[in-house]
Design a protein that fits this description.
- By secondary structure, this protein is α+β, with helices and mostly antiparallel strands.
- It folds into two domains: 38-141, Rieske [2Fe-2S] iron-sulphur domain (Rieske Iron-sulfur Protein), CATH 2.102.10.10; 155-372, Naphthalene 1,2-dioxygenase Alpha Subunit, Chain A, domain 1, CATH 3.90.380.
- It has helices spanning 6-9, 12-16, 28-34, 119-123, 155-158, 174-181, 186-190, 281-299, 303-311, 326-336, 354-372; strands spanning 38-42, 51-56, 59-65, 71-75, 89-91, 94-96, 103-105, 110-112, 129-130, 132-135, 138-141, 162-170, 207-212, 216-222, 228-234, 238-243, 254-264, 267-276.
- The strands form four sheets. Strands 12-18-17-16-15-14-13 form a seven-stranded antiparallel beta sheet. Strands 2-3-4-9 form a four-stranded antiparallel beta sheet, with no helix packed on it.
- The relative contact order is 0.14.
- Bound molecules: FE2/S2 (inorganic) cluster (FES) and fe (ii) ion.
- Residues 180, 186, 190-191, 331 line the site of fe (ii) ion.
- InterPro entries: ARHD_Rieske_2Fe_2S, Cholesterol_7-desaturase, Rieske_2Fe-2S, Rieske_2Fe-2S_sf.
């Protein structure tokens, strides 16, 4: 009688197990994601002299900025009796816990324990700290093991005349949104109204092609007249594409880059940087218009509540009056509609899922290498990588 495990008997079973979805430090995908620099906050979310909790990769951290502007990332809890460090006081050279005043330097070293005179005891207490850097309006951190790799640069965004930085949460596993980003056909249906309606992209369903590249993959939406829209997936979780102009004074399509960051298995955040081609007074107009749109959105029923009402059958998508954040609602409904963690073993993939199949293969190969202790692929971002709008 064969003693082979089901995995050995059928290698395909490996890929149907829940591998990509896992986020903990012990999981393969969690380790893989942690082997890259990843954004964990917008730079504007953390002012000098302030601290805040950060929940990412199934873990929690304390992010603080000393009064001179330097960012620090450290453990979530105080080693004394475990309260949240982010509620404490940021000082010029570290952070002090709110509960009993223990003080930690920016290198994590405990410096003061009020009421304790045993210096040796104090010296033995140290917080874990993580490398952290500010870039393109985001706070990037390296929370993996060992020395961090060199931080990649995205020069097309460094040169942009204006950078618009934003973030949002979505109540499903982060990998569903990674897959969504290279899903060219969903634009025709999910976004049949709203942002893409008059973009010229939705007139016909494109033929999907995909190729592996030095940085990940390029997904192509090929139209019958030969026009091609290129969307880039930069390993492991970055999407780069072009979006139609939507602001006054904006003539060019925007360069868009985003990172999908797991919070827990069933919640993720996206950090978005958009290079907008506007200059001078148009920048002020852009900011004023954006703030106004955000105020409009804040006055409406939340996108999440609306999406939930669609998913429960209380209303239909077509019942939603026009609103500026309709694209996010459309994506929320389809992605959260897949289930908090989609059951990939029950899917039926087709021709239009080519890019997603390629992405999964590439991820599987990396996760297998990690599991076997073999070297991972070293991805390279070309100097001026830029997507094409396909028009
Ligand atoms: S719990 Fe932080 S000082 Fe006591
Ligand atoms: Fe979408």
């Amino acid at each position: 009688m064969s003693m082979m495990s089901p995995e050995a008997a059928s290698p395909d079973l490996w890929s149907t197990k829940r591998q990509f979805e896992q986020v903990s430090p012990a999981s393969l995908a969690g380790r893989f994601m942690r082997s890259f620099w990843q954004p964990i906050a917008m730079a504007t979310q953390i002012e000098p002299g302030r601290a805040r909790p950060v929940h990412a990769f199934g873990e929690s951290f304390t992010l603080y900025r000393t009064p001179d502007g330097t960012l620090n990332l450290t453990e979530f809890r105080c080693p004394h009796r475990r309260t949240q460090l982010s509620t404490g006081w940021v000082e010029s050279d570290g952070i002090r816990c709110m509960y009993h005043g223990w003080k930690f330097g920016t290198d994590g070293q405990c410096k003061e324990v009020p009421g304790e005179d045993n210096e040796n005891y104090i010296r033995r207490i140290k917080l874990k700290t993580y490398p952290v850097r500010e870039y393109l309006g985001l706070v990037f951190a390296y929370v993996g093991d060992g020395e961090p790799p060199e931080m990649p640069r995205y020069t097309a965004f460094e040169d942009a005349s204006y950078l618009d930085v934003s973030t949002y949460f979505r109540d499903c596993n982060y990998f569903q949104n990674i897959e969504n980003g290279i899903d060219e056909v969903h634009v025709n249906f999910t976004h049949s109204t709203g942002l893409f309606e008059h973009s010229g992209l939705n007139e016909e369903v494109p033929q999907v092609e995909a190729e592996q590249t030095s940085y990940g993959l390029v997904a192509k939406g090929v139209r019958s007249d030969g026009r091609v829209r290129e969307t880039h997936l930069l390993m492991p979780n970055i999407l780069m594409l072009k979006l139609p102009p939507s602001a006054e004074g904006e003539n060019e399509w925007r360069n868009y880059i985003s990172w999908r960051i797991p919070v827990t298995d069933t919640l993720h955040m996206t950090f978005i940087v958009q290079g907008v081609s506007i200059a001078g007074e148009d920048i002020d107009k852009f900011i004023a218009a954006r703030d106004e749109v955000n105020a409009q959105i804040a006055a409406l029923e939340s996108f999440k509540d609306v999406s939930r009402r669609v998913m429960s059958g209380e209303i239909a998508m077509s019942d939603i009056p026009p609103r500026p954040d309709i694209t996010g609602i459309q994506d929320y409904v389809t992605q959260v509609g897949q289930g908090e963690i989609v059951d990939r073993s029950a899917e039926h993939l087709g021709r239009s899922d080519l890019a997603i199949v390629l992405l999964r293969r590439m991820w599987e190969r990396e996760l297998r290498a990690l599991e076997m202790g073999e070297p991972l692929t070293s991805w390279e971002v070309p100097e001026m990588l830029a997507p094409t709008k396909g028009l």
